[in-house]
Fold these 2 entries.
Entry 1:
Amino acid sequence: MNQKQFLRPIVDAAALSAPLADYNTADAVEYLNALPLPQATNTLAALSLPRAVKLLEAPELQHAGALIAALPPARAAALLGLMADDRATDIVHELDDAERARLIPLLAPEARRSIQLLLSYPPNTAGALMTTEFVAVPADWTVAQTMQHIREVERSRETVYAIYVLDPHSRQLLQVVTMRRLITGEPEDAILAVAQVNPPVTVNPLLDQEEVAQLIRRHDLLAIPVVDAQQHMLGIVTVDDILDALIDESTEDVHKFGGVEALDKPYMQIGFLEMLRKRAGWLSVLFLGEMLTASAMQHYEDELARAVVLTLFIPLIMSSGGNSGSQATSLLIRSLALRELRLRDWWKVALRELPTGVVLGAILGLLAIVRITIWQLAGLHDYGEHWKLLAVTIGAALVGIVTFGSLSGSMLPFVLKRLGFDPASASAPFVATLVDVTGLVIYFSIAAMILGGTLL
Amino acid sequence: MNQKQFLRPIVDAAALSAPLADYNTADAVEYLNALPLPQATNTLAALSLPRAVKLLEAPELQHAGALIAALPPARAAALLGLMADDRATDIVHELDDAERARLIPLLAPEARRSIQLLLSYPPNTAGALMTTEFVAVPADWTVAQTMQHIREVERSRETVYAIYVLDPHSRQLLQVVTMRRLITGEPEDAILAVAQVNPPVTVNPLLDQEEVAQLIRRHDLLAIPVVDAQQHMLGIVTVDDILDALIDESTEDVHKFGGVEALDKPYMQIGFLEMLRKRAGWLSVLFLGEMLTASAMQHYEDELARAVVLTLFIPLIMSSGGNSGSQATSLLIRSLALRELRLRDWWKVALRELPTGVVLGAILGLLAIVRITIWQLAGLHDYGEHWKLLAVTIGAALVGIVTFGSLSGSMLPFVLKRLGFDPASASAPFVATLVDVTGLVIYFSIAAMILGGTLL
């Protein structure tokens, strides 16, 4: 910002909104995001209502709740009333109770009712994601009547490309007409004449957003109707809401797989303490689990004292178990999320992971044997007189541990799903911890078998 | 399948297509997927052309390439010509050279040209994802002319909801008109009168699909035009293609983060050898890297022999470094993918991870000190006369290692991006390997400092 701009009084509405005049919505949002909150609020207050609504509706706008809360309540309520109700609900979600109590009574009755309905659904469900602003017409209308209706309500509807045909009496959903089919119809045709032949694909408001996304994708829809048990329409979930939801969900999945509680804000916007809380929890739980490795090691302390050479390979062996486990887990998490595999398919997976693990373990075991042999023969390190037996021990332990890692890594998502958790909660660190303790036991048991009487 | 169905001759077309008659496309695709290839081919051959096209266009259909290759060439070419050209191109991608050479000459010239154009773009780019079947009209047309044109071409266009207005002479893209705006226009209005005010958002054919998705999302589009350097339209990428691409990409990201080469087929469809290849490569590379831990341990073998008690905590300490690293990596991978952070922001992240790592390390260090103290005082294990110094060593090592893990885990995605790799290639096992070797060095250095003269 140059000095001249800096000297402008910040209450000058024209000056404040001037830089935004040439921007499209996405760029204007970026500009607002870069301003400190008080200035961003003043800028938003200086814009025309329709422009401000456009910016507030952009999911990329940060601190939308704080902006609404900082605006004069009458203006804030006007903006919320003009916005798409699903986005308005998202913003109301960000407000604290006092702010909600102040704003909601100021809303127009219709906007208030739909926002209160949407607020009542749990997050990440079709109900929470839907908008109530769709186009519905009675089944006794013609194409021309429908077209005229759409022209009149177009501005207040999130999409007009899917038109829902309701029973004129019971108001139950009968059919869906796409705009494509509508415009090819003759004006005097009955609306049902251009409707799709198949019964409409609908969802229950409590369905998880990931399943909604799968349905939208499978049936190539632009929107999916959300209905109650009596087939009355509650709203629609549009493809762009699903796009946003999927991007958020895949962020969440990567975070979970990395062993962090999902962050709902960009990295740089999370406060220091919040960031600690999101990470310390899991890290401590894993640490407590991993403490069992210390107990396992204590159990083998005598063996360790007699054969220090065994300790040299502990990190190598443990990490191989963890790595093969995290590979298997990542494969199965996605297969379960994409519904390629069902819970009952667990044994098919186990039957595949068993030989896969054995072969992978054999490959790593061979590498280890070659490594030890080369170091020993080239004089790089002396593993003692029983180095051949040691090499065989390491090789055999790797086969056992990688097999165990692959098997348990692939079964963990099934177990979590069976227990009612999200299979994506099976994080790489979680699998590694699970495999580490058992890995040590496998290692020392094999060492006792092969080296008993010589080194041990 | 019951016996009666089994006894039907498999060449009976009516019998083959009969079970599909009542299914919608998605269910029919599931039915076909469950059949062995020869039967699926016969079923597909028995369907009407439009029905077969619908099934082949479903991205969920498996082995579409094998099905097309197994059909009589004339029918295969007819089906490819009738399909959306982007999907037809995907299927041609699955064919081997001989099959392509046999089929492509049989295609109608227009279909052949557009498939050959699409085949020429690298995978995962706007060019590879786009369709050439869009609606474009010259800028001197009226709303009524445009509407009439859409009614005529509707069936052969992937979307008619975005209409591209071209300069009548140069054929450069001037504006975009949405169907929403078109139907609100008066028939005699010029098409430009209902066009959007802002210049159209366009992409280059070589842009990565993830960036295309971000633009579609940011600007809330149903399709985005792909243009060459002279603003001539090459095609459009629609939101449903992006939805498919995003789901594939998030699968790929989870696989990569788990340390597997991305699978392009469902888990159960990957052959045993292919599965081994996808996993053995990374696993072996990580194993070779992890071998450095054995070298590091060898270097400290004397210390280990003198103080076996130190080895008890090696797995615990190493895994804590890996876990904190994989947390940090998962956070930064997503922030970079979502463009929340740029390459130049690396130092801001480093400045945050440093104190975060110190505090997280202190929490774990404290847990470890408490654990050792309890075990020692309760007589569960004897850590020797210097157990207090040992506890301090473990605590201090955890602070050092968790800080190092957080810092290097967060910097790795930046380094990969700087080197031109996908930041999502920073897998949890990769980070763990990176942190393990350094972790050991940190541990033994701190041990030497604190325990030098007593235990060491």
Entry 2:
Amino acid sequence: MKILITSGGTTEKIDSVRGITNHSTGHLGKKIAELFLAKGHQVTLVTTKAAVKPEPKENLKITEITNVESLLETMEPLVKEHDVLIHSMAVSDYTPVYMTSFNELENSEDFTEFLNKSNSESKISSASDYQVLFLKKTPKIISLIKQWNPNILLVGFKLLVNVSKEELFEVARTSLKRNQADLIVANDLSDISANQHIAYLVDEQSQEKVSTKSEIAQALFERICHD
Amino acid sequence: MKILITSGGTTEKIDSVRGITNHSTGHLGKKIAELFLAKGHQVTLVTTKAAVKPEPKENLKITEITNVESLLETMEPLVKEHDVLIHSMAVSDYTPVYMTSFNELENSEDFTEFLNKSNSESKISSASDYQVLFLKKTPKIISLIKQWNPNILLVGFKLLVNVSKEELFEVARTSLKRNQADLIVANDLSDISANQHIAYLVDEQSQEKVSTKSEIAQALFERICHD
């Protein structure tokens, strides 16, 4: 099968020297890729410069992206030619629009003006004591996958922080329905450490608990290749 | 001599999954460290996890920091026990205070309230179309160096983007005076590429032009060890 995997975290530029990054090392995506590669599948890994990556292999293609815009452009053709997407990348929810001083905010009569502005400076000045950064929502790539390819098997990821299991499952099932995903890997940052990565493979009826990155990879392989 | 070098870029957390990063690979700091190590000096490198680093050596100590707060804590004792500081790290100018929806901003009667708020959520919700992030200035570490150790030789760095040489030199000399620095390495992002790194070693009277990272390291070594 042709497996498309995303890993790492996107960075949205504030200016030419600063950006907002979603932290993700890429270790989980690497583990998943390595398992499918070892089983003889063709893997395309869409990842970032900073993320860890598998060793080069004949059946592995790696493509690097930076921000949501470049991810979107890269994904559309790839989604159309793969059988499975395992979308473990941490994608930025918001991207910077305009950064200004607190004074400019106080002197404004209509803040919506800031949503249509953009910074002309290459490096935003650091003169004022406080600054205000306006951000807008990025396109939700996961919601476009089944439009691009209704036959692809879609595995999404949901990372929350310090929530109850009930809330985690509920949010995962909302994402499952909204994005027509086949499976959501739901996890809580507080359950992830060097040697542990508790996660739940959530579908409409069930939630399967696994406890390490290797177990997540193994469980995904079994669901995808043996179901 | 005991040489303290900083490299890489700091990251200021927005929440537990997102942060604002000053991009810096650490290549220049690595080059400078390697030259001083090769000449038999004792080097302490304060850097970040993501930055490239020299190979381990007997006369090299490496300390990793994350944000401006941890840099500040780490630097004070180190500055007191070194002869030279080469401060090439890209340090965040601002750190997040509070992130909220555009609606909350529109409904506010006094925006200064946002400067005293903080997010209670571990991961800020991504429900609204626009968000607003309030940031405050970080302490300027370079301005504290000579207070901590009046005898240290201080080399600062100034990176601007797309400015004239006159502006670059003026900003460098302002930093020289304000921070009681002995030398400022002034450079423009538009003059930096894979094989080129144009920079000017600026003091009160002169500006010495160099064109690569190796030349920057060599010129710094000559100024520091032969003057």
